[in-house]
Amino acid sequence: MAPQHPTAALLLCELVMEIFSWVPAKPLTRLKLVCKSWNSIISHPHFVKLHLYRSPKNAILLFTRTEALTLDEGAKWGLVLSSVESFIQNPSSALDAQENRHSLHIADWVSGSCNGLVCVAHSPYHPNNDICDIWLRLWNPLIGFISENSPCLRVNLPIAFGFGYDESSDSYKVVTVIRDSSGTVTAQVYSFGGSSWKTINSFPAFPFSVENNGHFIGGTLNWLGLRNPHRDDYDWATVTLDMLMIVSFDLKSDTHKQILLPKGIHEIPREEPILGVWGNSLYLLHDYKNTHLIAWQMKEFGDENSWTQFLKISFQHLGVERLLSVFIFENGNIFMLRGRHHFEEVFYDRRDNSVKRINILANNSYLDALEYVESLVQPR
């Protein structure tokens, strides 16, 4: 057989790359095993970025859940990956499927997800409960990639996290927001692959719910927080509207700015509001006089005039007593809320005003949700 012409070989390679770029990530991990040329194409950094760009966004949900152990051991975290469609049709089955589940170590927890990478924090027990040592690493559950640990960060509690991607430097960054005993708020920034943490002084606010990670959108991490809180045990009844602010941290410049709240909020909610992201939109949810849930959408991220109220519904109709947690998916059409019972999840579909209640978890477990996209990303 005559040797293949270089131009023909190149065209064939480009054709294969084009076809493979539309194939879901999971089958591609098997196609890599077919031959060396396919493995070379699928593993190439250019192809990985092209495939990520063409992957369907918001198609996968990543759930973090605890599996309660003994009092001495504490709680063990795990991950569950599920397609949006499977989860909506049968949440319990989607969460219980063994092939979708991944375990974490006892001292691990998830601090964010971006481009198919999960940022895992590790903090072993420290005899001084006000101080903790933290290491972070990146994990791609699909391909089994695990990065080297970050340098150790010793911090005072409480702390809040954020994880995202800086396209300008092609790097993944984690941000920890820290408040010391004097009330001073600072941030520590680490770029994976680097050798040290960078300190950002005079951070303007501290997230009042440290369980909520910073929300990644448009190259920024965003938290809803209190302006210059002086102590940990603040009383929400004393919080005023001017103390609330959204802090947006730019991962390219390592600078922060304030995003104003919607102009239609004229009084402080009775419960702590919730910030969220789905797709390319920032959401703000809050209660109204303890009777209704109100949801705002920033239709153009960064444009404070694009805040639009798109939902107001009574807690009575939803079957919830208060605003404990909310996750938004399906382009802002479906809301998952914590029900009257700790292990009951309530699904509200605003397209037909329907409400569905499901007892998803048992055995003293806890569930939280993040956006996720399966990818072949493996930072170097």
From TrEMBL:
Keyword entries, A-Z: Signal
Organism, as annotated: Arachis duranensis
Signal sequence, start to end: 1-25
Name listed for the protein in its UniProt record: F-box/kelch-repeat protein At3g23880-like
Keyword presence, Signal: yes
InterPro entries linked: F-box-assoc_dom_typ1, F-box-assoc_interact_dom, F-box-like_dom_sf, F-box_dom, SCF_F-box_component
Domain of life: Eukaryota
Pfam families linked: F-box (PF00646), FBA_1 (PF07734)
F-box domain boundaries: 12-51
High-level lineage: Eukaryota, Viridiplantae, Streptophyta, Embryophyta, Tracheophyta
